[in-house]
Please model this.
Amino acid sequence: MSHILKKFPKDPPGPVVTKAEGVYLHTDDGRKLLDTTGGWTSCAALGYSHPVVLEAMREQMSKFTHVDYNIFTNPMLEELAELLLSQAPKGMNRVYFAGNGGSEAMEGALKLSYQLHYDAGKRDKQWYIGRDQSFYGSTMHCAVVSELPVLKMYEPLLPIQRALVPQHNPYLNMLPGESLDDYARRGAKDLEDKILEIGAHRVAGFVGETQLGSLVGDVPAAPGYWKYIREVCDRHDVHLILDEIYCGLGRSGKIYNISNDDVTPDFIVIGKNLGAGHAPISAVITDNRLESVVLGPHGSGRLNQGHTHQGYSLGAAAALAVQKIVHSPEMLAHINSLGAHMRGRLESELGNHPFFRNVRGRGLLFSIEYDCKDKNVFGLTLAKNLNEKHCVLINSKWHRVSFTPAYILSREQADFVLDGFVAEFKAIAETWPRD
Ligand SMILES: Cc1ncc(COP(=O)(O)O)c(C=O)c1O
Model:
């Protein structure tokens, strides 16, 4: 009997992983599973036990595992910051190492944003606007800007300065006859209307995932959306805070997903793929305005937040090794071409299937959506068959399967996954009711 309090207490215990290497998980029942989920929560960007990353961690451990970087200079963190900024949107020139998880970094970004207004004397700016059906992390302040049915019970505990605008999802919310550009402009207008309703002098920031993530299934924004949102934010002195915890650091085929739109936000939040599951570490990419405001005439003279394990030294060693690999042009080219190949195969082999709705996403972050009776059960059956018959782990939820494999997945491994996926999809659908 387990004494661990688990998220889904009714679920039977899973197998024990005895070894994890590359894209494979070896379990104590003698199986070797090919993982297309990147460690289920999509953090294993370079697969498991990457030898170069492990070596960097071993070397760091032989010196020490953590000393505080606010007191001692850590050349490795300096190098990591420089690397992370090398492909950041124009004008972004500071990295705040927030802590271990994405939630801590999102919480950090909200606080940095608030302090940037506060120390500039704009103390009424206390509202943050999020979007329907979004998740920015598990801390209370992250829950404030998120919107999900499972978070609803916490509402009485949350501060009230939050507002929501509709989810930006062209697949779900475009009106008949509306062009993508019209839809993108409508999304920006929703935000502007909300800012004016609250009062621009009260609104501090707008929070969004650059590309909708695992809840909705990997939907990139309509072209122009982020540019229009940026213009609205600029008009009303509202910070644009982008969550790239799930969709950043190579997942989209670019280091930053927002680079697909050529927009500079005020904050980009990164986590998961930074240490890529080898060590937890998260950060916020921003610029040097905070320093000048904090050290300015009305400034606090310091950042009013910090954590014991921020910039964790062992995590920094892992993240630097990971990011050197991820930032290489060859790796980004591989992510783009393999992602295009996999999406292309799904479209060409399942595009005419009566259950097929669409394939969407970028790089190695994409989903296939289907529609049929009991689609959640259809997806779970697909996952079960792939696991049991093909030793392939996939992530199916509600109306879609999301693929977030390790960037090191080879073309042969991808084809093996897709052969099984397409065959099982068709076989199960043969006897599955359409509606
Ligand atoms: C988009 C997004 N934001 C924030 C988080 C929170 O990150 P963490 O679980 O590392 O705290 C997640 C985690 O799944 C996420 O997908």
Notes: The CA atoms of residues 24 and 34 lie 5 Å apart. The chain is about 40% helix and 15% strand. The chain has two domains: 17-42+332-430, 53-326.
